[in-house]
Amino acid sequence: MRRLIFICLALVIPMVLSALERKSDYTYVEASDLTLIGKIHDWTPCPYHRVDTARYKGFTEKENEQVRCSAGIGVVFRTNSTRIAVCTEYGYAGFPSNTNGFSARGYDLYIRRDGKWIYAESGVSKDDGLEEPLVLIKDMDSSMKECLLYLPLYSEVKSVKIGVEDGAVIEPMENPFRHRIAVFGSSYTHGSSTSRSGMTYVAQLERNTGLHFMKLGCSGNSKLQLYFCDVLCDAHADAFLLDAFSNPTSEQIRERLFPFIEQLRSAHPGKPLIFMSTIYRESRNFNMKTDASQKDIIATSDSLMKIAVKKYPDVHYIRPVANSVDHNATVDGTHPDQYGYTIWAKSIEKPLLKILRKYGVK
Questions:
Q1: Residues 6 or more apart whose Cβ sits within 8 Å of residue 144
Q2: Which pLDDT tens digit goes with each residue over 54-108?
Q3: How far apart are alpha carbons 58 and 35 in whole angstroms?
Q4: pTM attached to this predicted model
């Protein structure tokens, strides 16, 4: 009997302590009262939306939903708290089949050490209690820390409150990333199949280069639509990075590419427009129909971009790689896994920086 009681206590006590930890007194601050980064527009009525869908028209119902996701948005702040919690009010929480919950509806925390952003913790509340407070990290020292917290990729959030222990300091910090580079693209840019929201190729580029990337990725919907171009035209940006050929058909590329370039150039004369080819999809390996379709799309984009870089000043074309040697860096044959996105970020870093330096973006 004593042994049974001991076992029960051993199981119950950690649960009680965990509950007490969650209910501990925290001081909460709205993330938008700190410093938000990664947004193309700063004027959205909801600070965690990427596009003001009342202002920009033409989006489909799905596209409206996607641009209200907080994908690519981060918050930077200083704190000397030994614990950090997050409390979220969701507009909706995303449950994509090929993307980790930490990435789709959770949080990814980095802390700067010796000038580098170091992974600290990631997490998400339980699916049946997503709006309950989440103790993201604890048992840290009480030194002042510079924090970078990435918000969910596939969820709409209406409020994000960051909690620190009572008596601790939490304050805004200057954006640690320089310049402003707008990124538009497909599910690859949105972050599909990442296990953490800080592991998109864009976020990795940001931490690796120190440049500020403002991301507008829309899964399945980066098709060179001019209403998306309207959003980019109103962006305050020093350069544009465009994952433009991963979603449209060959016919759409032929029809839309040059009007898209001309509209964006007209709004941002002299700014570099850096287009990326789509990546090789592992689903092509044995599927002949997919292989033929992808070959056609790549041939079309290659041929038209060859014309575009000669016809239009400040238009550039680079080719990312996201495949491992063993062809295993994928989740579903279409999207890279976390390692694949690391390969992608590394593959374009040098050519991208070389182009940007010509425009004083360095």
A1: 78, 79, 80, 169
A2: 999 999 999 999 999 999 999 999 999 999 999 999 999 999 999 999 999 999 9
A3: 30
A4: 0.91
